[in-house]
User: What shape does this take?
Amino acid sequence: MLPRSSRRLFTPRSTCSRRSSATSSTPTSTHPQHSALRTAFLHIQQRPIEYASIPCVAAFVGITTNWMGVKMLFYPIEYFGTEMYREKDTPYGLFGWQGVVPTKSQMMGDRLTTIVTQRLLSLEEAFGRMDATELAQFLQPAVEDVVRNDCGEYWYRVLKPLLPFVLPYAVANLQKEITNVLDLRAIVMTSFVRDKQVLVDLFQKVGRVELEFLVNSGFGLGFGLGLLQMLGWAATPRAWTLPVAGALVGYVTNWIAIKLLFEPAEPVHIGPLVVQGMFESRQVQVSDEFGGFMEERVLNSEQLLEALAKDGDDGELFKFLRRQLPYPIPAHIISAAVKAVQLVAKEKEGYPELHAYVTDKIDISETLASRLKLLSPTDFEDLLHPVFQEDEITLIATGGILGLVAGMAQTRLGWGGPAATRKALATIAAVLVSSAALYGSQKVEEKLDEQVPSKTPTAVLQRRVTVVRVEPY
Assistant: This one.
């Protein structure tokens, strides 16, 4: 804590004798021939350790606020705190917080669903890749089992010789009317809204390089801004200098990092260099990652078949089969056929060849990836940018608040008194160790994610973490 006599002016030396000595030995800013900048450098030379703590703390503020901002985007999944006062669809309440993505899951899911259903995937095209006869052959054992169990041996014996003809006919017509029976938009939207973790995992997977850059860049940006903060403190050692500069560091590091992720969307050529937002520059790699995730978690064979047969006798599949099959076939036989589709959807292990066939022919991963790669960078940006646009000011302001607190703490604890140098050394050590721990925690999380088994192999990302690249010739 500062001595009472030195709190107001925060002079580089707290005693009159030291001030007199410093004044007599070196020129100060009181002489008009010396600039304020030179005076600042002279002050830094007198107390290098204490001044060195300023950019180190700023670097720690930068990486910490960015790390916290990323966590606040996604967690907690459910609102944590009291609902005493909270506006609808806002992540924050009077005393509580919910991740921005889980809070906005309805809106973000709707936006992603529109991209998938209107720009990337056509049900007619996807289901048209399957051969009706082959698919019918895979379905026939399940239909026979359900008919025998639910309708009896008589109907089983009657229908068994007819199924090789009836099933291909029904499947072929289903391919033509698939959009009337299967609601692709509802499938995608339900997956994102029913389980918010799916949407969180999607954004974290396709944007993991950008999110890691957002956190790590806070250290470098914070350190650079901290050097300016140090000069400002040396030139104007007032009670407000470090807190105000700390708030600016926390605010600006978040703002700059987010800008670097997405701007400029279109590549800008400057001689041999190309400048482009990091996310847009990884369009090829992100497209492969997105396609693999959607095939594995959202539009896999289980969920497609489950959605096809949902609502049982009241569903669209039952109505379709009733229209296609002659009325001498009773309703309970059609119900058995719908139930057979439900059975194969739930018991993938019992019908592995059917699921492998559907997955291979529909090929969701390659279809989505290839279409994403064809989008313009501006359209492609819509895949991830909305995550940061929602309540972006809240996340940036959080950085400013934490920077303000850090500056106040540094003013109170790091300057003045006989132990100032020891305090500064302890501060430098603490913030560097803490920053290294944050960086290491990201690497540990990344390793753990890589160890989670994946049903669908995904592309290995080329980890480009720069917005500037050299144009190939």
Remarks:
- The first strand starts at residue 80 and ends at 82.
- Residues 420-451 form the longest helix (32 residues).
